[in-house]
Amino acid sequence: MAAIQTLPPRLANQIAAGEVVERPASVTKELIENALDAGASRVEVEVEQGGARLIRVRDDGDGIAHDQMPLALSRHATSKIHSLDDLEAVSSLGFRGEALASISSVARLTLTSRARGETEGWCVEAEGQDMQTRVSPAAHPQGTTVEVRDLFFNTPARRKFLRTEKTEFNHLEENLRRQALSRFDVGFTLQHNGRAVQSLRPATTERDRQQRVASLCGSQFMEHALSIDVEASGLRLQGWVALPTFSRSQADLQYFFVNGRPIRDRLVAHAVRQAYRDVLYNQRHPAFVLYLEVDPANVDVNVHPTKHEVRFRDGRLVHDFLFRSLHRALAEVRPGDDSTEPG
Ligand code: ADP
Ligand code: MG
Predict the structure, then answer these.
(1) In which region does residue 137 sit, left (phi positive, over 0), alpha (psi from -120 to 50) or beta (all else)?
(2) Which of 74, 181, 307, 320, by CA, is between 20 and 30 Å from 120?
(3) Which residue intervals are annotated with compositional bias (Basic and acidic residues) in the record (predicted)?
(4) At what angle do helices 266-276 and 315-332 cross, to 10 degrees?
(5) pLDDT (tens digit per residue) in 10-41
(6) Rounded distance between C-alpha atoms, residue 289 and residue 212, angstroms
(7) CA-96 nearest atom, ligand 1
């Protein structure tokens, strides 16, 4: 039997990366979450070759103080929670302190930042098996830029799983769509191979918000959407649901947010499907952009490392609330004679 040894930091981080860093889109997801947690009002994303060659995310958030720069890259280091109590009522998107450490173990990552109120900026990288950090001065406006080059350059087995540039970029764009739908107050831009792909100004009025949804989900969706806002039993559901006149052949226009966090959940999916059951043919899929607000104490977000899943304390209550709210909203509008069926 071989002797038991502690893994070198890079290897330990590469193993952890297996759970959260699947492809370029997962990198942008984590970096955008960090920008949002830092209170950014603008997030700029630049990618090359679908993100495999370069991902650069720049924000105008709080930045990181000089003495904290090395910690930002080390595993299990986070500024977002300090105790189990914090975790149980967590409101930030991040809290695991793993993303930057994981990403920098499988790519060439440079973190550059200038903290609010400071006059100088700094950059840091983690090198070698020990992931020793080196901090050096760097010009940067207030905020943070994370540059990730050559994803999986040192993990060939993972690199093989990358799909074509187009497929990877589609995933990345889909992720950005989800995040842009989760924060109307933040401006987002996306560039691919030097070409501007998306530019969204912060949306403050209801009209702005509708415009953002239209530019992300298509104006067809918005034209056929019913706006909803229901509150009961300590739950609130807001957003837009497509009338049966706009259904899809695939479940590709379904966005659901719990306390601002994009999630996929079977219970939610089931409630929505039931609500549409009488008005939609079986093979068709509803389209929706919905926001559920729940007391953070009644929902567990620490179910999976990617945080796409949540667990509700009272799942039945949530299910019934969703079903009833949507069913009622859809029942109020009679199926129209306009039977265009895009998608
Ligand atoms: P987590 O988000 O779970 O805390 P990360 O590895 O993603 O873990 O980030 C580690 C820490 O680095 C964060 O807790 C935060 O303090 C800091 N950080 C990362 N990205 C940014 C950013 N864009 N702006 C400000 N601080 C950041
Ligand atoms: Mg994070």
Answers:
(1) beta
(2) 74
(3) 333-343
(4) 30
(5) 999 999 898 889 999 999 999 999 999 999 99
(6) 12
(7) 3
Is the C-beta atom of 94 inside 6 A of ligand 1? yes
Of the bound ligands, which one is closest to the alpha carbon of residue 101? 1
Q: CATH 3.30.230.10: which residues of the chain?
A: 206-332
Would you state the CATH architecture of domain 9-200?
Answer: 2-Layer Sandwich (3.30)
Taking only the tens place, the pLDDT of each residue in 278-303 is 888 878 999 999 999 999 888 988 77
**pTM for this prediction:** 0.93
Is the Cβ–Cβ distance between 324 and 229 less than 8 Å? Answer: no
Residue 312 structure tokens: 């509700």
- Say how many C-beta atoms besides its own lie within 10 A of residue 140's C-beta: 17
253 lines ligand 1 (CB under 6 A): no
